[in-house]
Write a structure and sequence with these properties.
The chain is built from seven helices and two strands. With 196 residues, the protein is mainly alpha-helical.
């Protein structure tokens, strides 16, 4: 097995304007955010792309995100008798504008350039080129092999997990990123995605 390195590899965090246009061109068309601006509006106008690149540069360098560019809310799935909701009883709804989604995609582009080489082979989800479904297939094939073995007395135990988004300890994420050696301006930029 590959030895896991605690230190994160060096990454060039500032993308070029050319890469910006490629990311925009490949962005899947999705619903516009609260501002009503779709990806196509950014793609069709060179001046708009320069504005977006300037916003990206300010965000990545200083962690300054445009005001109201990323709005997310947790909505309850059920009614609460006392007004207090358990995280598993909520679901996130993002009102992120296309500019906020683009900033996140751009940072993801930077991380993805090294992530599959750095992360443990056992981390199969959320890394380009890997598939979380492999975990299911691995467990199923091991279970079938054990079930066919003589004298088998093994069992499988499955655990259900609560909704991840509202229960993530964000302070822990910032501590972990700092421990990995991610620059403070990048951590501040990531944190800006979670302000609202």
């Amino acid at each position: 097995t590959k030895r896991f390195s605690v230190t994160f590899p060096q990454i060039t965090w500032m993308i070029s304007f050319t890469i910006l246009t490629v990311i925009l061109a490949n962005a899947k068309s999705s619903a516009a955010g609260a501002d009503g601006v779709p990806y196509g509006a950014w793609c069709s106008n060179l001046k708009a792309q320069f504005v977006l690149y300037s916003a990206y540069s300010m965000w990545i360098t200083f962690g300054l995100a445009p005001v109201f560019f990323n709005v997310a809310r947790l909505f309850p799935k059920t009614n609460s008798k006392d007004g207090v909701y358990n995280p598993c009883d909520t679901r996130p709804r993002s009102g992120a504008n296309s500019d906020a989604k683009f900033l996140a995609m751009s940072l993801s582009f930077c991380f993805n350039s090294v992530m599959r080489f750095w992360a443990s082979e056992m981390q199969r989800g959320f890394i380009r080129g890997r598939c979380m479904l492999e975990n299911v297939l691995h467990i199923e094939s091991a279970a079938v092999a054990n079930a066919c073995a003589k004298g088998n007395d093994s069992a499988l135990i499955f655990f259900g997990f609560a909704a991840a988004f509202p229960s993530v300890a964000r302070k822990f994420i910032w501590i972990a990123l700092r421990a990995l050696g991610i620059p403070s301006n990048i951590i501040k930029a990531i944190a800006a995605l979670y302000i609202n």
